[in-house]
Amino acid sequence: MNASAPIKNTQAEDDLIARFDAGRDQLAGSADVSARREAAVGQIRDRGLPHRRVEEYKYSDLRAFMKSAAPLAPKADVAAARDVLQATDCFSGLDRYRIVIANGDFQPELSDVEPLAAEGVSLTDFNELLSGPDGATNLAFPKTGPQDGTVALNTAFIQGGVALSVGEGKVVTKPVEVVHVASAEGAAVTRSRIDLAKGAQLRLLETFIGDTGDGELNAVFDYQVADGATLATTRLVVGNARSARLLTSIATLGADATFKSLGFIAGTRFARNQQFVNFTGENSEAKIYGVSMAGGEDLADQTLIVDHAVPHCNSREFFKTVLDGRAKGVYQGRINVAPHAQKTDGEMMTQALLLSEEAEMANKPELEIFADDVLCAHGATSGEIDEDLLFYLRARGIPEAEARTLLVLAFLSEAIEEFGEEYVTEGLEERVRDWLASH
Amino acid sequence: MPAVQETIDRVKAIDVDQYKYGFVTEIESERGAKGLSEETIRFLSAKKNEPDWMTEWRLDALRRFRQMEEPTWARVSYPKIDFNELYYWASPKSVEGPKSLDEVDPELLATYAKLGIPLSEQEILAGVEPKNRVAVDAVFDSVSVVTTFKDELKKAGVIFCSISEALREYPDLVKKYLGSVVPVTDNYYATLNSAVFSDGSFVYVPEGVRCPMELSTYFRINEQNTGQFERTLIIAEKGAYVSYLEGCTAPQRDENQLHAAVVELIALDDAEIKYSTVQNWFPGDKDGKGGIYNFVTKRGDCRGKNSKISWTQVETGSAITWKYPSCILRGDNSRGEFYSIAVSNGHQQIDSGTKMIHLGKNTSSRVISKGISAGKSENTYRGLISAHRKASHARNFTQCDSLLIGQECGAHTVPYIESKNASAQFEHEATTSKISDDQMFYCQQRGLSEEEAVALIVNGFVKDVIQQLPMEFAVEAQKLISISLEGSVG
Fold first, then answer.
1. Per residue in B174-200, pLDDT tens?
2. Which residue of chain B is at minimal alpha-carbon distance from A349?
3. Which of A58, B79, B312, B458 lies in the 20 to 30 Å Cα band around B38?
4. ipTM of the complex as predicted
């Protein structure tokens, strides 16, 4: 970026600066954490919220979208949070452990602390980490240089979150759901850390329920997957939120590790799911999937950067987008291969289905390769429903609407099925059907 | 197979680090207009006897250029260019007034002969089939020294001359179309070009005419410290067809030289333009010293229905290439094509690709890009495919493949695919790999040496694009590729 004159802050940026000034004493953290928060707000003040002239936000102009910024949500009332939990269950019928974060704060009394402890899983309030002597080390973002705008916005306002660690060799028997509850309106800003020790295995679900009103939802997950560990995570960004949903995950993989993730976005006004995957040990594998459904004026953005810094690692990326109304879908994916990361195998695919005249899709699959002995490929397609397929189904007596539903479901299911975590398959396909029924 | 053998022989015959066209022609020349200023532009304009509106156009471009910032988004790095240290005009002294072959300095003819571009009409007429004839416009530094077959083309109604001449002879045509595809303020280097462009070719093919021969321009930078800013304008009227070839070379020098060209193509209803480039500017020596900065804006406008523009490029030269030949598919059913081979070796940096802007209905485009990087080079494909609201049933197929040879080079792919129309169907695929051990083993097992095997596989890799080149160029291109990769095996 060219150095230029200080920008004129927007209403939302002014609100954010005011929010910080008003709440800085309540925000947890050691002195170094406070300094990092200060710097992050400084970044918003000096450079503004990420906007279309920032390459990574070319298609998702957060600065234009956020007209104002609501205050942070108040401390949660446990009873109110419990009500929301009872009203909405993203994976009803699924046998699982639950960890509850309400209005940005970890709620031990609503979480399955003891059963998880018995499985070798320990839970800590993220604020405790932040308040520790080296609090800021928990904020480490693997990239140097200017911070990502969404992460800066998170760093400035982290209200809390959970730090979950799975002991060495422990295989958690049931999926663990980290459910983020909004029991009152206001911004919810969380940071969570998921540590898997050597050989540990965990299946994670990340869900967001309740109404944040005009407050943005900003959650950052830091996954540390040690040697030989396996993490599978499903992220569900659904519901008719009118404010921005900003999700970030940063995965650091050791040797022989396996990481799988599925980001599922449906029916949200402005959603950005960004993932950074870093290979630090050899023979590891990452499989990243995405399913986006957007209608009306929605924007669904899936952004991904996979860094192959070491040799002999594989990555697979498979993203599906269905768009209706005047919605906009975004896929930005980049595979970086460092000079010594020989024998890398990377494959990226993004496909979009446009159901309406006015929907639009932007695909940007990138490869950045500095090593010669690699196999990397990407593909991108976009188009409408194939009339031949539709005709085939109708010729067999299936009504048009149903035929369309079938085709869209088949299209999206490809990614869900390849993700292969069967305990979520049914629930997700149900959501696809619901979304289609309402469009 | 013969072509492959030829490639191998070629590689063997040439020493490592030897740019074939690196010689300097000792010719008395005139250099003027140092530094970027209004005087420079007035000098240039006066030198070329341009009409007043043209001078004003240039001055306006200069004013706008001064307000612009150099773009930094491309994946290339180079020291800042001091535009005031450059000469904007260099011309062989002997070129003055009306040009015919007899009057051209024999030294210049010898230079072009050495480059393999015979400028004599007689010679071409003597032995070759008529359909293989090529009319050549030879641009030497800032001026066009000669244009061959002018009279014969005139009979067919085709205008093929230098742009300076066109400004004098056909000012209305030039005024109507110049800057209509690449606006003055399109980008930093296009604006610079608009202010200081020296020469280039002008082609006008009237309605219904199929241009009887290939047209070609051969660009040569000879002088030191000069920039070459050529401007090419090609107009194909309704139902016309023209195939145009462009070649470029420059002497081997230690300093970097700037080449910032603008090419505009306009195809009206049912017209077709085929534009082929073999770019072989001096790429710098093995330590990355010297070489041409090639910052070029090329754009075609499919203005009419059923029109077609096809770009084919073989990029082997230049220290830095920054070039995105594009098509604006405005007319319904129009078609754009882009075939590219970009080979980088040594310390070369290439950031190249295309833009296909679908505006009209049923427009289609096809992009085939093959990047080969070797040595310590960086090779980036950057492309945009977009379909606008009204571009219903637009179709695009893109394939960009990169081949890496050696451990110190980089290959990057940055595609932007934007669809604002549901019925637009876009397909994009890209791969990056090295020559697989299996393929090498297969070839070597059958008795080919390692170098032969690489040559064979590379030739296969780029075949899709080579096939699109006119025959004479295909052979040339194949040779060039082998030369560029030379020294990268083993």
1. 999 999 999 998 999 999 999 988 888
2. B429
3. B79
4. 0.85
